[in-house]
Amino acid sequence: AQSVTQLDSQVPVFEEAPVELRCNYSSSVSVYLFWYVQYPNQGLQLLLKYLSGSTLVESINGFEAEFNKSQTSFHLRKPSVHISDTAEYFCAVKNAGNNRKLIWGLGTSLAVNP
Amino acid sequence: DAGVIQSPRHEVTEMGQEVTLRCKPISGHNSLFWYRQTMMRGLELLIYFNNNVPIDDSGMPEDRFSAKMPNASFSTLKIQPSEPRDSAVYFCASTSSGTGADTQYFGPGTRLTVL
User: Fold this and answer.
1) pLDDT tens for each residue of A12-56
2) Residue B106 to residue A44, Cβ atoms within 8 A
3) Do residue B93 and residue A43 have CB atoms under 8 angstroms apart?
4) What letter would DSSP give residue A28?
5) In whole angstroms, what is the distance from residue B110 CA to residue B94 CA?
6) For residue B2, which residues of chain A lie inside 8 Å, CB to CB?
């Protein structure tokens, strides 16, 4: 069975500081990995994903995540956060096959303070 | 593209009443997911459909919950009778079968309050 652990439930940080949101997973098969973001009172939206190829993936708004197979991790980073990055961030894993089901972490609440 | 559409956006009802939540997936998408989100349990997958057929309903809490997808453009999640512990935000998401089949697109959610 697969599982996802987001190691921090809440991460407070000051504006323009760097941030890392941690995600570890367990799986006996090859996986795809995802980070979704949920802004207040909205649905989730894809931030970035790893399917294959380069282990470092980037989003359009400056976030990046690195797939580390040996450590079974997919941590999300941003070198300088903005107030507008305040949101809930979810890590998810999926079998690298036809099964459409995502296994979700419990989420990390990122609060960016001025 | 209109995105995933959910209705109603907010629903307040009394215990024992029937509640029906509705979802219209993105046109051309062939998989549809119903999720429930609460502070205590986070995001839970209730059921998902592929080509209108339920594939995995292991997350449906109990017999009070039922979901249907009569065609590719419409799905319902029904709770009968509703209970206060059903209060949550219910999300619908859809995904395609082609390139990008791995990305789920979420609707804005229905916030359900059962008094």
Assistant:
1) 999 999 999 999 999 888 889 999 999 998 999 999 999 988 899
2) yes
3) yes
4) S
5) 15
6) none
Considering CB atoms only, which of B48, B91, B105 is closest to A100? B48
Longest dimension (CA), chain A: 44
Closest CA to B43 of B111, B90, B80, B106: B90
Q: Check: CB of residue B25 under 8 Å from CB of residue B32.
A: yes
Residue with tokens 């979700």: A104
Q: How many residues does chain B have?
A: 115
The answer to whether the CB atoms of B42 and A34 lie below 8 A apart is no
Chain A residue set in contact with B, beta carbons under 8 Å: 32, 34, 42-46, 49, 51, 90, 94, 100-102, 104-107
Task: Decide if pLDDT at B101 tops 90.
Answer: no
Q: In Å, how far are A38, A52, B14, B66 from B9, measured between CA atoms?
A: 16, 37, 17, 19
Taking only the tens place, the pLDDT of each residue in A90-114 is 999 998 877 788 999 999 999 999 9
How far is residue B21's CA from residue B19's CA, in Å, rounded to a whole number? 7
